[in-house]
Amino acid sequence: MVVAKNANVATGREGRANAVELTQRVSAKLHFAPHDILVASTGIIGSPYPMDKVRIFVDGLEPDTADCSFPAIARAIMTTDTVPKHVVVRVGGATIVGVAKGVGMIEPNMATMLAFFFTDAALAQPLLHRIFRKVIDATFNCLSIDSDTSTSTAVIFANGLAGAVPEDEFEDALHGLALALVKKIARDGEGATKLLEVGVKGARDSAQARRVAKAIVNSPLVKTAIHGADPNWGRVAMAIGKCEQDIDIEPERVRIGFGDLQVYPDQLAARDLQRLSDMLRAENVRIAVDLGCGGGEATVWGCDLSAEYVSINADYST
Amino acid sequence: MVVAKNANVATGREGRANAVELTQRVSAKLHFAPHDILVASTGIIGSPYPMDKVRIFVDGLEPDTADCSFPAIARAIMTTDTVPKHVVVRVGGATIVGVAKGVGMIEPNMATMLAFFFTDAALAQPLLHRIFRKVIDATFNCLSIDSDTSTSTAVIFANGLAGAVPEDEFEDALHGLALALVKKIARDGEGATKLLEVGVKGARDSAQARRVAKAIVNSPLVKTAIHGADPNWGRVAMAIGKCEQDIDIEPERVRIGFGDLQVYPDQLAARDLQRLSDMLRAENVRIAVDLGCGGGEATVWGCDLSAEYVSINADYST
């Protein structure tokens, strides 16, 4: 059960009672046991559900005739999203479907973001759990729209009807699916005009690589430079320097590039300037950093910061 | 010696040689020993000084006729500042003067911010050092425009000509002066329309209070809400929740207010709504949080996030 446009957060006892009542009503209507219903809620903080409207809606549900397709689900759970987010992949004889919503207040752990995965592949629950955790950590937990956070949900449902599939093939397929959703979310980030991918390698370990990549993707000055298609690598260097605890990063060993063009420390050849400019004007921009220290790597995804982000969030009424 | 509009950062050996040459030229011109000259440089990262212009300028200096007043200094060190920042206080028979610049890429430790203090009070160097560190930590290190950082400088010069002053009076005066400069910087933050003050009390200790206050003052969603004069306390609650390591914060004990009006957990009385609205439309906005846990306190300063911040920084050309 997904409630969109109201997070039911910081609503106290009234909020808890409303969630319980809602679960019971849905349970009665759809003939599921209440404990088989997961509740996910997203939207404004601190306002109780408008229960009058909610009761009328639930009591009027017509499950037999409603559009229960995945595209319809993706559309129904949108809040400030501008496009529904829905991806399908095949793996052997099975299918995995993912739907997600979220465009702002997004940082790990996957804040104000809902993602639901459905598959008919047969996998033992502990194995599915392990694969799912691993995939989410490398995809949704590497996404940041604005460094802000809130509650979030990611769930996978598997009914086993299509039988077993090879574990590694399933993991690859699920990873590809989750990454496609993550890119859709970043690309639809509030006010975003570009998808920003930041890859860091040569770190002491993957945790350091991720910290540095997150500092870059979350920096307002990097995000505005990308918005302005400005190859301002100084701001990327600044963001690396923000990682105060990472005192083992040596400035002399750091390499910074946009796409496959290195811009620091060696100056870009004049003949590559036009290519750099075109690259920064594209809808997908990649920043590549090599810390020149070890084998740790990480990739994170985010978006540019535009004036539109400000107006969306300055006008979002409480 | 202050060089404005060029940080001389990430310029390698050429940058170092340029700084040395500049120090020598200024030293020869003004008859100071080179080791008595402090160099502070602020502006674009990664571009060498335009030495042709700089040499002509330094060689043409006329120290006897130049305007060496503090207001002229405050004006000369501006980069994207829209107003010069200059404050004077008296303490006993002595005076303290402060000048500063900086409007963006500002987080501790005092990034891309230059602050110079001058006094004729006589204080032993170790004592002055201790007082200065303490004051800077509680003022400039509690300032954030955009969470982004770079190199910075804060220095105090004392010639002792006015004789001794009581230590505590000097510290109070210097604190007041530094705070006045911090507020001028926040108020002049890139694109800022409001000064935002965040006070956190009831924390386990002052370090926790400062972490929480910083999470609030740096949150893009809090900053845009303040820009839109929206009493969206849910975003303040979200920012407190961002402090992942502070697992001892109990949501049930947290109190959130704007100015002297508490907005969470108790709903605001209807008669106070207009006062809240007026408060949020003012040029100075204060968010007050009580974590209800201990005696730790901190206050930090910042500003709202406007579309103007984005355009200033998207168009800042490399």
From TrEMBL, chains A, B:
Site residues by UniProt (Involved in the stabilization of negative charge on the oxyanion by the formation of the oxyanion hole): 42-43
Record: residues binding substrate: 79, 101, 112, 190, 313, 318
Cell compartment(s), UniProt: Cytoplasm
UniProt enzyme class: transferase
EC annotation from Swiss-Prot or TrEMBL: 2.3.1.35, 2.3.1.1
UniProt pathway: Amino-acid biosynthesis; L-arginine biosynthesis; L-ornithine and N-acetyl-L-glutamate from L-glutamate and N(2)-acetyl-L-ornithine (cyclic): step 1/1; Amino-acid biosynthesis; L-arginine biosynthesis; N(2)-acetyl-L-ornithine from L-glutamate: step 1/4
Catalytic activity, reaction form: N(2)-acetyl-L-ornithine + L-glutamate = N-acetyl-L-glutamate + L-ornithine; L-glutamate + acetyl-CoA = N-acetyl-L-glutamate + CoA + H(+)
Active-site residues, record numbering mapped to chain: 112 (nucleophile)
Keywords: Acyltransferase, Amino-acid biosynthesis, Arginine biosynthesis, Autocatalytic cleavage, Cytoplasm, Multifunctional enzyme, Transferase
Site feature location: Cleavage: 111-112
MF term (GO), any: L-glutamate N-acetyltransferase activity, acting on acetyl-L-ornithine as donor
InterPro entries noted in UniProt: Arg_biosynth_ArgJ (IPR002813), ArgJ-like_dom_sf (IPR016117), ArgJ_beta_C (IPR042195)
Subunit description: Heterotetramer of two alpha and two beta chains.
HAMAP family found in the cross-reference section: ArgJ
Similarity comment text for this entry: Belongs to the ArgJ family.
Job description of the protein: Catalyzes two activities which are involved in the cyclic version of arginine biosynthesis: the synthesis of N-acetylglutamate from glutamate and acetyl-CoA as the acetyl donor, and of ornithine by transacetylation between N(2)-acetylornithine and glutamate.
Protein name: Arginine biosynthesis bifunctional protein ArgJ
